[in-house]
């Protein structure tokens, strides 16, 4: 894995949290994006070579809505950048990790993404992401 690409944080109100994180980080979010298939609206902040991704649910069936109901606001996942997501899936499955979606899906920021079940990673939802070829 190359680096921490971003840290995802579940929030109740994206506008309020955009203002809060702008104040915290000293920089404004540079984009917002809705991923309809996942039921989330996201915004991104650049922090050095990594990003902060804020996630708000767009409907009650959204995984973010379920997370917020269960755990409240807070760190939702850590995303690592990889160069060959298919090779990483194979490697991690062999090492005993539970890959939630074996076929990478298109996530926010035009990336191929795969998630590892937090039960296999000390309670932390792990995302692998790879830049999609344009
Ligand atoms: Zn993410």
Characterise this structure.
A hairpin with a 4-residue loop joins strand 2 and strand 3 (40-47). This protein has helices spanning 14-25, 63-71, 85-94, and strands at 3-10, 31-35, 40-47, 50-57, 74-81, 105-106, 111-116, 126-131. It is an alpha+beta fold and 134 residues long. The chain contains 3 helices and 8 strands; from the N terminus they run βαβββαβαβββ. The structure holds zinc ion (ZN).
Summarize the structure.
The chain has 134 residues and is an alpha+beta fold. It is built from three helices and eight strands. The chain has helices spanning 14-25, 63-71, 85-94, and strands at 3-10, 31-35, 40-47, 50-57, 74-81, 105-106, 111-116, 126-131.
β-strand amount: 35-45%
What is the spatial order of strands in the main beta sheet?
Answer: 2-3-4-1-5-8-7-6
Terminal-residue CA separation = 21 Å
Distinct bound molecules: zinc ion
Number of helices: 3
Which range best describes the helical content: under 10%, 10-25%, 25-40%, 40-55%, 55-70% or over 70%?
10-25%
* Low-pLDDT segments: none
Task: Kindly report the oligomeric state of this protein.
Answer: single chain
Number of E-type strands: 8
Overall pLDDT: 95
Cα Rg: 15 Å
Give the ordered list of helices and strands.
EHEEEHEHEEE
- Main sheet overview: 8 strands, mixed
Q: What global shape is seen?
A: globular
Structural class: alpha+beta
């Amino acid at each position: 894995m190359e680096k921490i690409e971003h840290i995802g944080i579940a929030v109740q109100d994206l506008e309020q949290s955009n203002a809060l994180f702008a104040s915290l980080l000293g920089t404004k979010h540079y984009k917002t994006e809705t991923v309809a298939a996942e039921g989330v609206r996201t915004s991104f902040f650049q922090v050095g070579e990594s990003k902060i991704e804020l996630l708000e649910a767009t409907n009650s069936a959204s995984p973010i809505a379920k997370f917020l109901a269960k755990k409240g606001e807070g760190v939702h996942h850590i995303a690592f950048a990889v160069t060959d997501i298919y090779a990483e899936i194979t490697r991690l499955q062999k090492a005993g990790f539970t890959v939630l979606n074996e076929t990478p899906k298109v996530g926010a920021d035009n990336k191929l993404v795969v998630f590892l079940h937090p039960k296999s990673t000390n309670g932390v939802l792990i995302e692998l992401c790879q830049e999609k070829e344009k």
